[in-house]
Amino acid sequence: MRALVGKAASSTARHKTHIAYRLFQTSSEAYLRWIENCADYRSLLSGRAVHGNLIVNGLARLTHFASKLIAMYAECGELPVARKLFDEIPKRNYRRWIVLLGAYAKCGFYREALILFWEMQREGIRPNNYVLPSVLKACGHLTNHTMGKKMHCFILRCSYEHDAFVNSALIDMYAKCALVDNARRVFDGMLAKDLVGLNAMVSGYVHAGLVKEALCLVERTQLAGSKPNVVTWNTLVGGFSQAGIC
Fold it and tell me: N or C: which end of the chain has fewer CB within 10 A?
């Protein structure tokens, strides 16, 4: 009889564990969506509420939650909190670097992005094609062409020059540093001249006040069989309007 009771109790415990695991899976996805919504709408109060809920449930330091929380706090302008969470995740975790560096660059904290990049270098962690566009964006906005050129050399050494987003970030960086010829060389060196690269180059020309060159580039790509999109045309129209040509 005791054996039967023990077996039943064991079966019930396993069943409860399974249910708890399923609930955790569901709530895990719900938590992630909740944090993303807080970031999208910059709802700091709601973000703090979900963070507190995660702490109570012992989940706040799990990497996938912590990474989302870092991005959310950075998006809401709470950089000290984002950095504190960053420091609480194990140092060798790669995702934390991608998230905070990207958040800094996205939110306009370009100096902080470069400082964090140097920390990453000191830790011996090699940047990848997810980190490089954020670093290049920071270089461009700070017009730090010296650092930007060093990053370009690194990109060539590590064979990232065929990555569309890395290339577009390079083009944008050179254009913002008033090195439009360098930007054009990067564009011309692209094996596949996709819309990401084209729009970056058109934006670079417009930024430099070279709207006619931007139009010539678009016309050339059309002759080659590529179709500009609404972003391309909006950038061109904006450029001609600023130049007083329209």
Answer: N
214: how many CB neighbours lie within 10 A of its CB? 23
Q: Find the farthest-apart pair of alpha carbons in the chain and give their distance in angstroms, rounded.
A: 93
Domain boundaries, the chain: 25-89, 106-192, 196-246
Q: Are 211 and 183 in contact (CB under 8 A)?
A: no
Interior angle at CA 40, CA 36 and CA 45, nearest 5: 80
Each residue of 182-236: pLDDT tens digit?
A: 999 999 999 888 899 999 999 999 999 999 999 999 999 999 888 899 999 999 9
CA distance 206 to 175: 9
> Any idea of the CA torsion for 93, 94, 97, 99, to the nearest 10 degrees?
-100
**pTM of the shown model:** 0.81
- The amino acid sitting at 203 is S
What whole-number distance in Å separates Cα of residue 239 and Cα of residue 241? 5
φ, ψ of residue 4 in degrees (nearest 5): -65, -40
